[in-house]
Specification:
about 300 residues; single chain; Aminoglycoside 3'-phosphotransferase, Chain: A, domain 2; alpha+beta; 2 domains; two-stranded antiparallel ribbon; Phosphorylase Kinase, domain 1
Length: about 300
């Protein structure tokens, strides 16, 4: 099915799809994310608490299925407890902090290339409807009011935007899948590549890099991400400024999420994520020329 047909399918997306249990396998807890608790594996499925953005995410996952993208879970419906049911993607995921094996440069290149393939598969999805797959669909940013001191770029596509080491499925040392699409939303390709760099370079003050990744060459890793994703010359020139601006946006968004949503967002804020973001911003400001040279 081509992308146009796949997009049309979501004009009548079934937001109340019910998952019928085939068996009653034992529930096994999966690692807690930064925000979402209560994620469990049941046989070959994963159960997640239903969120306001779940129907939009489900429609997006349906699109990826119809265009033949094989690196994302399939949405199966909601179970008797009202939880979202998705297929389980087998493979390895990094812990928190990520193990030394997750710092491998070949794995890094494969993550960036994988996200580029995801973005190519995502292009065109609901673009003719202001990236709303069906009337009333909401994405994660719609749930929080944030006053930004500058305008944000017009979106080009919908993509994952939470490509942490804990969300990338790895087999034989290569990225083959992504899980936890709760933060998926409309954005640009450059923001999508930046998200990979943010979590996998990682773009942060060196003092905040995990002790399990000693002697990390951030600029060399950033070059790998830019090349493996395939940035254009124009995107490479824009990257340093975007990275600095993203830190400002991230600080304001995290603060607003903590105040308005509470829960895991408040916990991260209390644990100092705001200060970490500001240290990232300051490091990017101090090393703007180095960052520009790395991606040029």
């Amino acid at each position: 099915m081509d992308a146009a047909v796949a997009a049309d399918r979501h004009l009548t997306f079934d937001v109340d799809r019910v998952y019928r249990e085939v068996d009653h396998a034992v529930e096994s807890p999966l690692p807690r994310g930064d925000v979402t608790d209560g994620v469990v594996r049941v046989g070959d499925t994963v159960r997640r608490p239903h969120q306001p953005q779940s129907p939009a995410v489900a429609a997006y996952l349906d699109h990826l299925e119809t265009v033949g993208f094989d690196g994302s879970p399939r949405y199966l419906g909601r179970d008797a407890q009202g939880r979202d049911v998705l297929t389980y993607l087998p493979g390895d995921v990094a812990g928190d902090p990520p193990e030394p094996w997750a710092a491998d440069l070949d794995l890094l290149a494969s993550v960036a290339a994988f996200v580029r393939r995801l973005d190519d598969a995502s292009a065109g999805f609901a673009a003719d409807r202001d990236f709303r797959p069906f009337p009333g669909a909401v994405w994660r940013p719609d749930l929080v009011r944030v006053d930004l001191p500058f305008s944000t770029p017009e979106p080009e596509l919908i993509t994952h935007l939470d490509v942490t080491p804990q969300n990338v499925v790895v087999r034989a040392g290569r990225a083959v899948g992504l899980v936890d699409f709760d933060l998926a939303r409309p954005t640009t390709r450059l923001h999508s590549m930046h998200n990979v760099a943010l979590h996998w370079v990682p773009l942060r003050d060196p003092a905040d890099i995990w002790p399990t990744w000693p002697d990390t060459d951030q600029l060399a890793r950033l070059r790998v991400v830019a090349d493996s994703y395939g940035l254009t010359d124009e995107q490479r020139a824009e990257f340093p400024g975007l990275a600095i601006q993203h830190a400002e946006v991230s600080y304001l968004s995290m603060k607003a999420s903590a105040e308005q949503l509470g829960g895991g967002w408040q916990r991260m804020w209390d644990e100092g994520v705001g200060a970490l973001i500001l240290r990232r911003r300051d490091w990017l400001l101090d090393h703007r020329d180095d960052v520009a040279a790395a991606v040029a």
